[in-house]
Amino acid sequence: MRIVFDLQALQNESRSRGIGRYVRHFFEALSKRNDVELIALLNHALPETLEAARADAAQLVGDQNVCVWHGLQECAASQPHNKKRAQLNQVIYEDFLASLEFDVLLIGSMFDGYADDICRASRGVLLS
After folding, report:
1. How many CB atoms lie within 10 A of CB 113?
2. What is the rounded distance in angstroms from the CA atom of residue 73 to the CA atom of residue 86?
3. Cβ atoms within 10 A of the Cβ of 67, count?
4. For the chain, which residues make up each domain, given as ranges?
5. Domain 2-127 class, CATH top level
6. How many Cβ atoms sit within 10 Å of the Cβ of residue 110?
7. How many CA atoms lie within 13 A of 90 on its CB side?
8. What is the pTM (predicted TM-score) of this model?
């Protein structure tokens, strides 16, 4: 089974809170399983934390299983002028996801993205 684990929650303020610890421990537990191919998904639009998150994920699943999608910056939903950019970002994210041909998508936090550049899918790509 091919599992893509969206680790953007390890790239924003959530990384140092409960949700970050939950995501990190869940990812680590899955990485120890022999019956799954685990892919880490990170966001290039969060450069301050990208390399640390990439290094942490690579230690668990190897460099070849860490994917970085190139999201747009300045997409926070809290800023009305970001609406068009946020919509475009969703399309980019979903297209990237579709290219990964996964069986299961795990999203670390469904609640991020209001005050930062975290992006979530909104279309039917997740049901394909």
Report:
1. 20
2. 9
3. 17
4. 2-127
5. alpha beta
6. 11
7. 15
8. 0.82
CA-nearest of 55, 23, 60 to 39 is 60
Among the listed residues 31, 29, 41, the one whose alpha carbon sits nearest the alpha carbon of residue 4: 41
> If we measure between CA atoms, which residue out of 114, 94, 72 comes closest to residue 6?
94
Q: Can you tell me which residue has the tokens 């790509």?
A: 125
Per-residue pLDDT tens over the stretch 50-89: 999 999 999 999 999 999 999 777 776 667 777 787 778 7
- Per-residue pLDDT at 47 exceeds 80: yes
- Residue 122: CB atoms within 10 Å: 13
* Residue 110 pLDDT grade (very low, low, confident, very high; cuts 50, 70, 90): low
Q: What does the H/E/C string look like for 44-66?
A: CCCHHHHHHHHHHHHHHHCHHHE
